[in-house]
Amino acid sequence: MHTNAYDEAWALPTKEAALVALRTQQIIAEETGAADVIDPLGGSYYVEWLTDEMEMRTYEYLAKIEEIGGILQALKKGYIQKEIADTAYKYQQQMENHDRIVVGVNAHVMNEPSPINTLRIDENARLGQIERLDKVRKFRDSKKVELALGDLQHSFQDPKSNCIYPMLKAIKAYATLGEIVEVGRKVFGEWKEPSIL
What we know:
By secondary structure, the protein is an all-alpha fold. The protein has helices at about 15-30, 45-70, 70-75, 80-95, 125-140, 140-155, 165-170, 175-190.
């Protein structure tokens, strides 16, 4: 089970928020007995019905995507993006009409301010990382990096090639993530999300 920290929508979790999330998991695991059986709700008619319903609707949805020509075509035609946008709009409408209750947002809202302290990354950490990156670039074997990135480019261009090994070779030569991604950008181009209007 995973519990998100309450501040993850704003930033990386603070220690306090991560601890609340962890303690929530621990209480469920240690105090409720939910982890003592394989399926705590197994045999519940309602839960089994929901599972069957979700499975049926999932297969119906996957069939729609197959009719379009598969997930790649669905993405290229903007179908997936439109579905996400439509779902978000419906969800927002349900919240605003109080058809869907979200505690703290449209029900049981507290009027007093409750500021959330978000994690702030120390500027020195950023500068230190840039300094380490500069050192790596200065002391690595540039010819090895160039050759490894060239091999990676050839691998990307060959549809039958496994690009993992050339990518690992580039990493071992101390190519940066940015350099590796740039090779992919040269070969494959940059994804432009289709308009869904």
